[in-house]
Specification:
By secondary structure, the chain is α+β, with helices and mostly antiparallel strands. The protein has one domain: Cytochrome P450 (Cytochrome p450, Orthogonal Bundle). It has a 6-stranded mixed beta sheet. Strands 5-11-10 form a 3-stranded antiparallel beta sheet. Strands 7-8 form a two-stranded antiparallel sheet. Helix 1 links the parallel strand 1 and strand 2. The protein starts with 9 loop residues before the first strand and ends with a strand. The model has no long low-confidence stretch (mean pLDDT about 95).
Length: about 400
């Protein structure tokens, strides 16, 4: 029988509170009372929830906390998440040295200098989308007509994936990232997307282009299935995260008109503004998962070997000890210590691209739509509470 000290404090994921931008209140309370809490997952599996900035950084930088989802005790936040890690995992579910070997094959593709060279093309895409969205109209759904197609077009361009197939891969992504998807539904979506990328990779062998898939083929180090797995990771992560951050950032600015006004008056501050929005919103609300490979002392608590750990980067990014007044959006804040992209060897590979896309997206929207406003009451905006990547389903705007 579990003792009182071993009884889960609450379940994960927890219910949201009144503010849709904030982490669930029980997580924020735990950060004050019990920063390393015991929680129960969807299937009753116990895990540890880590909520403070300092402790989250410690876990994500400590090799004794493994990313290998095949290890006993690894915490899965849904049945679909478990299925996603079944079979051959992507390198984000591996530890070094295999993780480092595979990641190095992509590092050069996302170096800051190479990504910055994409700025004119991304700006052209953003302007074209705004041109189409505003042609003869005074309102639109920003998600469908701008926030989602922008990163989708960019990642398709980089990978060598035909954008005409965007409805297909976006639907697969929705299934893969839906918290309530069954294992069978996720397996089917994995198979469909895997078959698509397998066939596309084979086509690159016959007719290579300048995309990442073709360059991986040319390296000769991976088989077609392995390249397809990398392609799936980049394709899904490359459009879902930035699309939702773009829409959520616009909504957060509309809800904070003083901050919106500041950014309009100081467009040159968009780089720092993006960092603060990443900190404030932190759209990975389900946390980053690890499992202890040996007993580890963390924040005065002993984590036992085989215990799952969930790092709540959204609460870490609101930690008053690191970001005073962290529940407020302040575009003048130096937010560069945020953990929205993770930390350590597993931090997001594509963060230079995401930052550039967000900078261009926000600058373009605010510059091109001076009368920007919500077209519906805020209370009618539908948030993606059921998705592993948080955001909004639609964002009706007018100008």
């Amino acid at each position: 029988m579990a003792t009182a000290a071993q009884t889960p404090r609450f379940t994960h994921p927890a219910a949201r509170g009144a503010c849709p931008f904030a982490p669930p209140p029980v997580y924020r309370q735990a950060q004050q009372d019990e920063p390393i809490s015991r929680v129960s997952l969807w299937d009753g599996t116990p895990s540890r929830l880590v909520t403070r900035h300092e402790d989250v950084k410690a876990v994500l930088s400590d090799p004794r906390f493994s990313s290998d989802s095949a290890r006993p005790g690894f915490p899965f936040i849904s049945a679909g998440a478990r299925q996603l890690s079944a079979g051959r995992p992507t390198f984000i579910r591996m530890d070094d040295p295999e993780h480092a070997r595979l990641r190095r094959m992509l590092t050069g593709e996302f170096m800051i200098k190479k990504v910055e060279a994409l700025r004119p093309e991304i700006q052209r895409i953003a302007d074209d989308l705004i041109d189409r969205m505003t042609a003869g109209r005074t309102g639109a759904d920003l998600v469908r007509e701008f926030a989602l197609p922008l990163p989708s077009l960019v990642i398709c361009l980089l990978l060598g994936v035909p954008y005409r197939d965007h409805d297909f891969f976006q639907e697969c992504s929705r299934v893969l990232l839906h918290r309530d998807s069954t294992a069978e539904e996720v397996a089917a979506a994995q198979q469909r997307l895997g078959d698509y990328l397998y066939a596309l990779t084979e086509a690159k062998r016959a007719e290579p282009d300048d995309g990442i898939l073709s360059r991986l083929v040319a390296r000769g180090e991976l088989d077609t299935a392995e390249i397809g797995l990398m392609g799936r990771l980049l394709l899904v992560a490359g459009h879902e995260t930035t699309a939702n951050m773009t829409a959520m950032s616009v909504l957060a600015l509309l809800r904070n008109p003083d901050q919106l006004d500041h950014l309009r008056r100081h467009p040159e501050s968009v780089t720092g503004a993006v960092e603060e929005l990443l900190r404030y919103l932190t759209i990975v609300h389900s946390g980053l998962t690890r499992v202890a490979t040996e007993d580890v002392e963390l924040g005065g608590v002993r984590i036992r070997a085989g215990e799952g750990v969930i790092c709540m980067i959204n609460t870490a990014n609101r930690d008053a000890g690191e970001f005073p007044g962290g529940d407020e959006l302040d575009l003048t804040r130096d937010a560069r210590r945020h953990l929205a992209f993770g930390f350590g060897v597993h931090q997001c590979l594509g963060q230079p691209l995401a930052r550039l896309e967000l900078q261009i997206a926000l600058d373009t929207v605010l510059r091109r739509l001076p009368g920007l406003r919500l077209a519906v009451p805020f209370e009618e905006v539908r948030f993606r509470n059921e998705m592993l990547i948080y955001g909004v389903h639609e964002l009706p705007i007018a100008w």
